[in-house]
Amino acid sequence: MKNRICRVCKSTAVKPFLDLGNQPHGDSFIATKDLNEHEPHYPLRACFCLDCTTAQIDYTVPKEVMFEYYPYVSGTTRMLKEHFEKSTERLIKKLKLKKGDFVVDIGSNDGTWLECYKNTGIRFLGIDGAKNLAKIANAKGLETWPKFFNKKIAQEVIAKKGGANLVTAAGVFFHLEELHSVTEGIAELIGGTGVLCVQAIYLGEMVNIGAFDQIYHEHLTYWTLRSIEHLLGYYGLEVFSVEFFPIHGGTIEYLIAKNGVRKIEPSVAAMRSKEKKLRLGDIKTFEKFGARVWEMKKELIPILRKYKKKEKRIFALGAPIKGSTLLNSFGIGTELVECAVEVNPLKIGKYIPGVRIPIKDERTAGEPDAYLVLPWNFLPELLRKMESYIKGGGAFIVPVPKPMVIDKNNYHKFTKK
């Protein structure tokens, strides 16, 4: 469904700044038996609201198509597990959470974040519309409702469990088709004294490093402090703390409460000042970002072709949804990348949508001459994991932020001492 009306403020002053063409839903991995079936494609256009400055895509693939069966599993990434563990410790300390308090995690996936509360005495509940992931979480003893959160579900939680001292939403706020219903529901759920913790890929860092592959159909909105404050203002909520984390290529944590309940920390004013300097309220900033994407293509394709010309084998390392965006946007198929390798059993044996690159088990696929690193946001972890491969003559082709090759000659520049 095309939507050239702002998802936040309902303005019609919404202007496109990057058109990535028609693409399949990036997580709709194809089984071998379905290779001859019709594959739906949808417009993938990034736009900017001239009124409230929210970046967003203008076409909505129904959430039931994207999320009821979801192949991304949080627990497969060690770096993300560690991030959630540290976040839990920090939030318990900062918010003075105690035994008997209640935490609700929206978009809780396989329960990776919920698991961090297991031995704290804090009550918790996960809510996730992906039935396959909710089943995994429940099997681990982590109570999870297989539902899409909205105002109605918030009221159901309150009726059955009571209000929440903390609501967490990591990697969720850009997914929300029912954006206003969800935000209104959260406002009810946290009551007068609770806190909402939103962790989201930061638009400012996306623009800074050229991370266009964070744009895909699941990501309906892309947040800055200014734009999320506009949304929160409708529901009597305000940001009282902002913190930046490097995970996912740049993530911002917003701590949010009812107006006047929490003291506004200096980090909020500092972020406003930073966003002003970055000109994140100016459409020209995003038009430059859009133009930069096609320069990246001009740099990446020759690197891949150089390897193929020498009859070298290239595998994609991982098959994240961001990889679907990059491969389909740049027209990279099996003529350049032989296959992708994965550890996620929900993806192994299938094909990347659109470009139809087969996905093999990383443990049995063998080693190529080079890997195209699609989950570049986990580069430090991947370099540690595959140090012997690099030192043995293999190479990483990293597409973002600037296409480059990491091999045994320059490996030391990208690893911490």
**Overall geometric form:** globular
Q: What number of structural domains do the residues give? A: 2
Q: Tell me the Rg in angstroms.
A: 21 Å
What top-tier CATH class of the largest domain fits best? Alpha Beta
In percent, how helical is the residue content? 25-40%
Strand coverage percent: 15-25%
Number-wise, the strands total 17
Cα separation of the termini: 50 Å
Mean pLDDT comes to 93
Q: Name the poorly predicted regions.
A: none
- Topology as a string of helices (H) and strands (E): EEEHHEEHEHEHEHEHEEHHEHEEEHHEE
For the largest beta-sheet, the strand count, sense and barrel status come to:
7 strands, mixed
Name given to the CATH architecture of the largest domain: 3-Layer(aba) Sandwich
If you consult CATH, what is the topology of the largest domain?
Answer: Rossmann fold
Total helical elements: 12
Describe the structure.
With 417 residues, this protein is of the alpha/beta class. The protein has two domains: 66-278, Rossmann fold (3-Layer(aba) Sandwich); 299-414, NAD(P)-binding Rossmann-like Domain (Rossmann fold), CATH 3.40.50. Helices cover 32% and strands 21% of the residues. The protein has helices at residues 63-67, 78-95, 131-139, 151-161, 179-190, 203-209, 225-233, 266-277, 283-309, 321-330, 379-385, 387-391, and strands spanning 14-23, 42-49, 55-57, 102-106, 123-127, 144-145, 166-170, 195-201, 221-222, 237-245, 251-258, 314-317, 339-342, 359-361, 370-373, 395-398, 404-406. The strands form three sheets. It has a seven-stranded mixed beta sheet. It has a six-stranded mixed beta sheet with strand order 14-13-12-15-16-17. It is globular and about 65 Å long.
